[in-house]
Write a structure and sequence with these properties.
Protein name: Beta-galactosidase
Domain Glycoside hydrolase 35 catalytic: 11-115
Family: Belongs to the glycosyl hydrolase 35 family.
Radius of gyration: 25 Å
Shape: globular
Structural class: alpha/beta
Largest sheet: 9 strands, parallel
GO molecular function: hydrolase activity, hydrolyzing O-glycosyl compounds
InterPro entries: Class_I_gatase-like, GH, GLMA-like_second, Gly_Hdrlase_35_cat, Glycoside_Hdrlase_35
Length: 685
Amino acid sequence: MTIEVRDGVTVIDGRPQVLVTADYPYYRDDPAVWADRLRAMRDELGIEVITSYIPWRHHQPEPDAAPDFTGRTHASRDVVGFIELCHRLGLKLVAKPGPFIHAEVTYGGLPDWVCPSSDPSIEPLLDAAGEASLWSDGANRAGRPLPAPFGPVFSAKVTEWLSAVGKLVLDGTTHPDGPVILMQIANEGIYTNGARALSAYDYSASGLAFFRDRLRAWYGTLEEYDRVHATTSGGWDEIEPPRSWTGADTPERMRAYADWGRFHADYTAEVYRRWADAVGCSVPTVVNLNPPTVEELDDWLARVRPEIWQDVAYGFTNWMGVVSTDPDSQARYVIAAKRAPGPNLEENWGFSVLYDQAYSDATTSYHQTLLALAAGATGFNVYTGAGTSGWLPDLDTAHTPPYPDCAPIAADGSATEKAPVVRVLADFLALHGEEFLECGPVTGGAFGLYSPYAGIAAWAGPGQDGIPRCGGALRDFHDRMREAGLDYAILDLETVTAERLAAHASVTVPGGPFLHRHVQDLLAGYAASGGRLVLDGPAPRLDEDLRPYTVLADALGSAGGTGSGPVPGDAPEDAPAARVVSGHADAFLRAHPSRDVQYLTVLVQSDNDGPVRVQTPHGVVELLSAQGGAAVVRLAGGALDDFVVKGLNGFLDSAVPARIAMNDAESHADRPADLARVGGTLRLL
C-alpha cells in the first residue's frame, strides 16, 4: 500500500494513473453542504480525488491563538472533519497548506499579522530597486508587502504553521490509512511569482545572504570567482547581484547575470525543501508552477529547474488565456506541460467573469485539458469542481458569490451542462489512463535548454547582438514545429543523459560563448552517433568555468552554428506522425512501445469551419467538431476504438452533430451534440 510520484506520474499501490482531480474550497462553503457537494463531484463528475487549499489566514486569524483545525471557533475551519468526510465518501485528497495560496483569498491566504507593514520585525521581499514586492487582492486595491521567505521571523512563523498542519491535520490521514495522497506546497512559484522577472525578487538581506552563500558553494574561493568574472573583490559580502542590464560584451561580464538566474533556481528549490520539511508529510510533495509569460520566458526557464528539486515533484497551472484563439497562450501552455512531466493542477473550468467569457462553456476547458495531456501532462484538475457561496468576510472581500461563477456543480449543488463533459473525460481516463501514460509522444525533435543562457537573456531582452538566446530560441523552435505539424520534447542539457538524447533524431540547442564540458561531450557524442544536432547560434569555445574547451565546435566543424531564426536542418524537415491535411487544427500522437495502440488528440481552432482530416499511420481520421472543440481518440490495431469528440460550443454559438470516421468505420450524433464512446458504449452529451 504505497504512493509515489515516478517521473511525474502518480503511482498508487503500484498502479500508475492519470491524476484526475477537482478542487473544492471547503473554507468558502457552509459545512452543512460539504457532503452534498463532494457526492456531486464524485457521482456527477466521476471525480475520485479532491484538491483543496488550507488557508493560513482562515485557520489562524490571530497570532496569539493556536490554529483552529476542528471548527471550535467557526464550523468552516473544521478541516479535520472535512478530510474525514472525504474518506467516508471514498474520495482521496491533495492537501495544499500554502503558506501562500492565492486562490482569490485576501492577502493570498497569509494572515495579516505576518505582513511586514503590520510587524516591522518581519523582513519584506524586495525587488531590484529596493522596493517591497506587493500583493494586491484585486483591481483598485492597494498592495501590501510580502514577507521575505528566508527572513528569520517570518521563517519561524511559517515553520510553526506548516508543522501544525502536518501534526494536527495530516498525521494519520495520509495514504493508506487516510485519504491524503499528495501534499502541495506554495503556489505558482512562491507567491504566484514563478513567472515574474528575475529582477522582481529577492533583494532582501536574507535573500542576498543566501545568494552569497551560493556563490561560495559554486566557486569555492574568492580568487576563482574573480577569475571567472574578471573582477577584483574585497570579500563575498561586497559582491552585488545585477539590478539592471548594463551590457555584457564578454563571457566574463555575462556570468553575473547567469549567476543571478542560477540563484533563483536554487532559491526556489530551497524554499520548497524547507517548507516541505516543515510539514513533514509522509506522502509525496508536489508544486504548481504558473506557465511563463511571453515577456519573461527566459526568467521562467532560468528559475524553474525541477531537476534540482530532489523529492519535490513538478506540476503546473493554467491562468493565461484561451489557447484555441491565441498562439502566445498556446505556446506558453505547451512549454509548461513539456518542461517536466507532472499533472496540470489547476485548469480553469469555472471562471468566466474573472478571466474570459469563453470559459462559460465547457469546450474551452476541455480543449485546454486535452492539450495539456497531449503535450505531456500526467493529470488534470477541474478548478473548481463546485461553486461556493458561504465564506467569512475576512477571507475574501474582493469577490462576490458564487465562486466560481460557472462551475460544473453549481453553488446550489445542481449539475450544470459542464458536468457531463467532465464525467465522460474522467471515465475515458479511468478506463484508458494507465495505457495512455505508457504511450510515448511521437516527436519530430527536441529542444535543449541551457539555463545559464536563460539567465543572461532574461536581463538582455530580445535583439541584443552577441548575447546568447534560450527562451527566444525555444519560442522560435516551438513556432516552427507547430507550423510543420510536429510534436517535440524539451530537454535540460545540464542533466540530460546520452540515452535521452539518442531517443530523438534531431536536437536543437542554443549557441553561445560557453557550455558545460560534460554537455559538450554529450552533444558531440550524439552528433558522432548520427544524431542531427542543430546549433541556434555560435559554437561554444569555453567550458562552464570559462576555460578553453572546443569539443563541440570541433565536432561540428564549419557547420558549428548559424544565426538566430529558422535553422537549416532543423526538425521541421521530418514528416509528422499525425498530419492535419484539411481544417485548422493541431494533432498530437502517442504510441505504445509494445502494442499496436495509439492515442490521437485533435485540437480544433476557434476559426475552423467544417470537418478536420488527420493523416495517421493507419489512415485518415476525419472528425466534425464544434469551433474551438477537440477530440481524443484511441486507435487499436489500426482501427477506431474509444473516443470523445466535442460537438457543442455555446460560447461561439457553434453546434454540430459530432462525427468521427476512419477507413470504413464511422460514428456520428443524430443531432447537434458531443459524441463519445467509452468501453465500447456510445454516449451523446
